[in-house]
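2024-03-11 09:14:02 DEBUG pipeline.ingest accepted 1 chain
2024-03-11 09:14:02 DEBUG pipeline.ingest length=404
2024-03-11 09:14:03 DEBUG pipeline.predict start
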Amino acid sequence: MRRTVSLTAVATLATAALALTAPLGQAVPATASHGVSVAHACAAPTKKGDMACNALQVTAGTPRSAHAESDLTAAAAPSGYGPASLQAAYNLPSATGGSGQTVAIVDAYDDPNAESDLATYRSQYGLSACTTANGCFKKVNQTGGTKYPRGNSGWGEEISLDLDMVSAACPNCKILLVEASSSSMTNLGTAVNTAVNLGAKFVSNSYGGSESSSDATYDSSYFNHPGVAITVSSGDNGYGVEYPAASRYVTAVGGTSLKTSSTTRGWTDTVWSGAGSGCSTYDAKPSWQKDSGCANRTVADVSAVADPNTGVAVYDTYGQGSGWMVFGGTSASSPLIAATYALAGSPSAGSTPASFPYAHTSALYDVTSGSNGSCSGSYLCTAATGYDGPTGLGVPNGTAAFTG
């Protein structure tokens, strides 16, 4: 069962408790200022060590991104940003980059329609086919086999969102979908290891849960993979830290609202109020992170569009809806950043891809306005020139910030 909330509530619900305990199925009307109502695709975790996906489906209202694409030709055109808009907003060399690279998507449970839904998305936007038959798409379970876990419609929506966002940013990339047996960190972590063992140099994780004293063990067991870019969504509950975004071995991806503008760039990003951020309780600060207001690991590192009000188009037939939908959440921004790393090329052996943006800050669009909660005006929850918690160092301006 999904949790339905207005975007006004998204940031406030979990400042108290990461919104992971919000009543299931409780509908909250959208407000005039925020335009749309959304539902969490996945149910809240019920025990320690369980994760929830960070996908938010628009259930009512009209996103600002509706019918934004210039390349739509279908009679019933999907709403939400598609590949052309996302590539333009972040200056991505998607037409030429990414060939030969594999981006892995790690999610829980099975989506039996994953490949067919992906085919519809790519066909709609004129992208080349990505199938098992042509070697572009591969689906495995958490140990690399083909005996898939049981299906789950909420995580099915998450899977469709992830596959579509990799396709949007890097149409030439191959995609490896690794389905964990459940939403426990142990099973999802095992799936991460499988993705790396199968050769993926880019692994996107669009889920999170509460931090715990077990995080250091999870870090060493699942996320310490030199030479592999591992991205993790920062959360959809406003100011506050989730794991595994807090891992010092990953690129924590925050969220923005993306709108067209009259600037030279033609687009502008502001903080999305639902993006997770803050100072980790348990994870140590990596040497390449230099902000002074948090002695431990700070979330996030970089960001991309996540606001459902400026949401992305997704095609899914196994979820609670059927067909074209609009999604937001940092579940959208994490695969976009993983695909951007892939466009930049394979990280060198032994490198730390999470540190790359910190060495190339001029190759990012800085995000300087907006907030995701209350923290006495600190950069941990409020946009600032340079680094800030909700958007990190900024959003992609090409791929230079994601090279070693």
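2024-03-11 09:14:41 DEBUG pipeline.report The radius of gyration is 18 Å.
2024-03-11 09:14:41 DEBUG pipeline.predict end
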